[in-house]
Design brief:
CATH architecture of the largest domain: Orthogonal Bundle
CATH topology of the largest domain: Cytochrome Bc1 Complex, Chain D, domain 2
Number of helices: 8
Radius of gyration: 20 Å
CATH class of the largest domain: Mainly Alpha
Order of helices and strands: HHHHHHHH
Number of strands: 0
Strand content: under 5%
Structural class: mainly alpha
Length: 179
Amino acid sequence: MRNWWFSLAAGVALVAASGPAKAQGPGGNPFPEGEGREIVAVACTQCHGPNAFTPIRENAQAWRYQVYDMILRGAQIKPDEMDKVVNYLAKNFGPGVNVPPSQPVTLADGQGKEIVEGGCALCHGLDRVAAAKRSPGEWQRIVDKMVFLGAPLNGDQSKAALAYLTANYGGDGQRAAAK
């Protein structure tokens, strides 16, 4: 039993010694300079790599929700660090900030296409839309979630986007092919 605990302690010490992905100098560092950078670099990379969250483009409210969720899962962020982390993430990984590149895509023509292009491409590539094949209920949940996370769509625009997505990228086998 003692050997098991020793092995576990040695393994934990080895992982701790290798350390989390500290914020590095320019070049290969996905974390831009700014207040909160070190907290994000250490706390978030304890469980996953930066590519799991740096492509996300959410507003401050949505980042706060994400950070609370991660704290509930064990992220080591102190209460007095919360605002720094949220502000850092929203400033550097908010809507429209250096949106990650994606495959060039031309969406199917139809009423609502411009709304989807404008609202969705603000935060991520349209390849995610074109590759999807979802039921109307799934699209409804996605549109609702995206609006909650900061997509700049009013009620009528959300309805138009939902109708467009369901008609062109629905899960009923009638999905229009992306051009």
